[in-house]
């Protein structure tokens, strides 16, 4: 939303999780009035708006490279919201429950967690899950195994968090070097990711320590009033599409 407001683009912003409105099944998606053409993906939309003469800021090779780097920042956001168990149970799952009716919310939540784990795996971060409880053992053996599992889980979670912090260091160190002083498409995408990774309500915000190290990343998140935001109409999503996909951006910022 920030980029369209900044560039004064006359658009109607529709909150929708329906990836099927996009030929490439990617959000966000920019469509013309009669829905005959669509531009999918943040970078692609920014490039299109620039070609149409809108002032979206500097769109040189460095900005484009920075936007590509910020795709890794989006992976960090996925981990923060879906792979971090405490964050998921405290913030993300309740948001899903509010956004999607019972019982579809369970399928959607599972899909989102799976997508987040796969995205993290692509960066070499293996998301740990609690192993199933063993059967056919007496209580003493079961308790001993449970204690051992808990110790291993804590070690695994610690290693996973360290991997996240290492990736965050790489991503945000590069961002701090490449960011310009003026608002541009890369800065807006960066703000969206930082906003989600440092939500005040999140019980765990490990990336906050990384982000706070760089003065270039300390930017005020603009609070914008939009009068052109509408609820999706019947043609823009339906029950099966809600079940099929739901992006993590919708409850908090632009999807």
Q: What does this protein structure show overall?
A:
This protein has helices at 2-6, 42-51, 61-83, 85-99, 104-121, 139-178, 185-197, 207-211, 239-244; strands at residues 13-14, 29-31, 38-40, 229-230. With 255 residues, the protein is mainly alpha-helical. β2 and β3 (38-40) form a beta hairpin. The termini are close together. Its main location: mitochondrion. Pfam families: Tom37.
Short structural description:
By secondary structure, this protein is mainly alpha-helical. The chain has nine helices and four strands, in the order αβββαααααααβα.
Tally of individual domains: 1
Separation of termini?
Answer: 9 Å
Count every helix, treating DSSP H or I runs of 4 or more residues as helices.
Answer: 9
Instruction: Report the order of strands and helices.
Output: HEEEHHHHHHHEH
Number of strands: 4
| Unreliable segments of 5+ consecutive residues | 131-136, 234-255
Overall pLDDT metric = 73
What would you report as the Rg, rounded to the nearest angstrom?
20 Å
Q: Tell me, what's the shape?
A: globular
Structural class: mainly alpha
Biggest sheet, spatial arrangement of strands: 1-4
InterPro entries: Mito_Protein_Transport_Metaxin, Sam37/metaxin_N
Pfam families: Tom37
Region (Disordered): 121-140
Protein name: Sorting assembly machinery subunit
């Amino acid at each position: 939303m920030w980029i369209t407001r900044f560039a004064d683009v006359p658009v109607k912003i529709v909150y929708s999780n329906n990836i099927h409105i996009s030929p490439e099944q990617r959000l966000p998606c920019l469509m013309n009035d009669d829905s005959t053409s669509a531009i999918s993906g943040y970078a692609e939309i920014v490039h299109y708006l620039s070609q149409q003469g809108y002032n979206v800021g500097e769109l040189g090779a460095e900005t484009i490279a920075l936007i590509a780097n910020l795709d890794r920042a989006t992976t960090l956001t996925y981990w923060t919201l879906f792979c971090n168990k405490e964050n998921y149970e405290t913030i993300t799952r309740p948001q899903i429950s509010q956004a999607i009716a019972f019982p579809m919310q369970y399928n959607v939540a599972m899909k989102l967690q799976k997508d987040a784990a796969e995205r993290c795996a692509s960066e070499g971060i293996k998301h740990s899950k609690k192993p199933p409880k063993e059967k056919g053992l007496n209580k003493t053996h079961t308790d001993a195994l449970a204690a051992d599992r808990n110790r291993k889980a804590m070690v695994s979670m610690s290693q996973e968090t360290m991997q996240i912090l290492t990736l965050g260091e790489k991503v945000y160190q590069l961002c701090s070097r490449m960011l310009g002083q003026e608002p541009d498409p890369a800065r807006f995408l960066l703000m969206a990711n930082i906003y989600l990774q440092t939500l005040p309500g999140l019980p765990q915000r490990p990336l906050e320590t990384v982000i706070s190290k760089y003065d270039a990343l300390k930017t005020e998140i603009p609070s914008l009033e939009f009068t052109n935001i509408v609820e999706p109409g019947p043609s823009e999503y339906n029950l099966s599409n809600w079940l099929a996909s739901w992006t993590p951006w919708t409850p908090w910022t632009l999807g």
